[in-house]
Design brief:
Keywords: DNA-binding, Transcription, Transcription regulation. The structure is a single chain. This protein has 195 residues and is an all-alpha fold. The protein contains nine helices and no strands. The chain has two domains: 45 residues, Orthogonal Bundle (Arc Repressor Mutant, subunit A); 143 residues, Tetracycline Repressor, domain 2, CATH 1.10.357.10. Helix 1 packs across helix 4, helix 4 runs antiparallel to helix 5 and helix 5 runs antiparallel to helix 9. The radius of gyration is 18 Å and the shape is elongated.
Length: 195
């Protein structure tokens, strides 16, 4: 029962935080949207900040698991990177409200920054591992794999966020954009922009 209640809280919280932003969101609004008493939220989370951190950590963990699953289905580093990139795009498009929060709200307070750095770092480390393997095998030519991994993570996030805002509330159109985003990012990553 506890997990169902937390899922209700998270579902309501992601909508309220996305609609009002972290600062203006109220626990009362989250409780009302979830159809539970405000005290139930405070039973599970000490504060709005703790709720937000837990919500974002769960989303990032799901995204990381999704990317790992995709990566493990391929062997060569190039294909692993391709699968991770596609998995991140699909996950972020499929969780548009979470994506807006991730890329607009998580950098607010110092506490939030510290809480998310470790999760985002795990994701970037996963990308970096693939880049290093590919470099060792002569597939990639990189001098700064850490910075490249962070750049890939950021490029995917911003490309998806751009699509989410451009296709506002048109989920079919967003779904149709997924192959174009993946193709564009793959081309940029593997071929660059020079002729």
């Amino acid at each position: 029962m506890r997990h169902e209640t937390i899922d209700l809280i998270f579902d309501a919280a992601v909508e309220v935080f996305a609609e009002y932003g972290f600062e203006r969101a109220k626990v009362d609004d989250i409780a009302m949207k979830a159809g539970i008493a405000k005290g139930t939220i405070y039973y599970h989370f000490k504060s709005k900040e703790e709720l937000f951190v837990a919500l974002m950590n769960e989303g990032l963990e799901k995204m990381l698991d999704h990317a790992r699953t995709e990566m493990e289905q391929a062997e060569p580093p190039r294909e692993q990177l391709r699968r991770m990139l596609a998995a991140q795009v699909r996950f972020l498009i499929g969780h548009g409200t979470f994506t807006k929060l991730l890329l607009t709200e998580v950098w607010g307070s110092k506490e939030r920054q510290q809480a998310f750095r470790s999760r985002i770092r795990q994701y970037i480390d996963l990308i970096e591992q693939v880049l290093r393997r590919g470099t060792e095998q002569g597939i990639f030519h990189l001098t700064h794999p850490n910075e490249t991994a962070a750049s890939i993570f950021g490029a995917v996030g911003v490309a998806v966020l751009h699509t989410i805002y451009r296709c506002q509330d048109q989920s079919e159109q967003m779904e149709a954009e997924i192959p174009k985003i993946i193709d564009t990012l793959e081309h940029l990553l593997f071929n660059g922009i020079t002729a």
